[in-house]
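$ run holo --ligand "zinc ion" --emit tokens
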Amino acid sequence: MKKKVLFVGEASFLKTGYSTYHLEIMSRLAATNKYELAELGCFADRNAPEQHQLPWKFFGNLPNKDNPDEVNLYNAQEVNSFGAWKFEETLLQFPADVVIDIRDEWMCNFETKSPFRKNYHLILMPTVDATPQNPQWLYTFMQADSVLNYSDWGKAVLDKAGGLIKTVGTASPGTDLKTFVPAQNKAKHRQSWGIANDAFIIGTVMRNQTRKLYPDLIKTFAEFLKQAPKELAERSYLYMHTSYPDWWDLPALIIEHEVSHRCLFTYKCKTCNMVAASLFQDGRAACQRCQRNDAMLPNTHFGIERHEVAQIYNLFDVYVQYSNSEGFGIPIVEAASCGIPVFCVDYSAMSDVVRKLRGYPIAVSSMTKEPNSGCERALPSSQDLIDKLLKHAQLPETWRNKKGFEARKGVENYYDWNKTAKVWENLIDSVPTKDKSVTWTSPADIHTPVRDVPAYLEGEQFVQWALINVAGRPDLCNSYIAMRLIRDLQWGSTVESTVDRLDSELSSQGVRDRRKNFGKEDILRLLKALCDHRNFWETQRVERLVSH
Ligand SMILES: [Zn+2]
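-- output --
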């Protein structure tokens, strides 16, 4: 019997980072012919035509737009967009031995609480991008049977949680080693992009979002120009492949630091698809080829192709990742794959990646605590970056080439999809096979909620009693959920949007939630709903998988 393996993600045929990871791993696992594979694709329709190309079973998560009841049910809770409302139904159609999720904690924690939890081996690979990790997240990771990591740095953080998280290794994303290759002839390549061969280009490919430190990077570049020998300063540029308008006001920043004549951006024409490097020309500019006013900075909706990004990396002399933390940092590896030496802030996954790529770690000057998540974020030392850039720029050419060669070598050693897929294959093979009679075809586990609540119970005793007698879940008595209910009862209030699914209080957006009154009646209602949910799906399971 082949192991049944279910991947839950965004849909492997989309273009997001998570999707790419799924596609690369699942296609290699499918090629072994050792497993029965399926995918729950959260951002795709059940009728998505792309699924017919996949060598595995596909389940779409989006509601039928023409069915208002379905749309309302889907919209009732944010967690449904991550697959929560379709998870149990999918498992009844595909009773998996192994469930795999590589997303953030708030996207996958429903899989740790499913009524079917005991029937599958759960493997999580969460993005660990900072320390300390919130106790709510650690509790979720503790519920998994195995935990893989994006980086060795992330693994080390989870290993510090008292050995309670079953970390089993690192399965970093690989890179496309054939698309991201060093340019055959850099001088000729630059010429075709209208860039002088002797230019010194400091490049970055980062989305224009809060944690990417664009203001600091632009300020540091201005300072670099002041400290560099005149000969070097006069041919130095900062190339930012990013979007605008978006989070940071890039034109205001390059004007503030008087470097607008030294900053390059990528423009792509909406009409003729021409991709070009240019000084800043506003959010919309005239296309260099067709002259229409349709050239824009690319963004997530209007992206550019991978081979075009590879061409952009190949314009750079060095690559800089200047962000306060990263769960991984795919562009760092892509740049290195093109033979570009990398400079990364020495914090989070970047600390690990930059060393594997034999790049330059940028010293951290201070750490600052982020509200809501409680995580530490890094502020890099701009002088350290300037010193390292000056040193590198003034190395003899053969030495600089050697650094680029080492970067490429590091990618081949550590970020090869074939090697990453092998980590998954070995892990899945090591999962013990359980007899179906103790998992999917076991007798129904039904609980009848006790209705008479003893009036003398208060606080912790009340919550424990309700978990056992109303929810029928003695296993939750020492859980994060139990602690939260005890505290909220004591306070008489709770966080409004998350309590109904007995979830973490931290939202993905870090938005401050409203609080609402909370008492014993609320706990009884929530735990009764938890019990009803379990009874409903257990009944379904026995009817559909056991009765015949
Ligand atoms: Zn055009």
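-- notes --
The chain has a mean pLDDT of 94.
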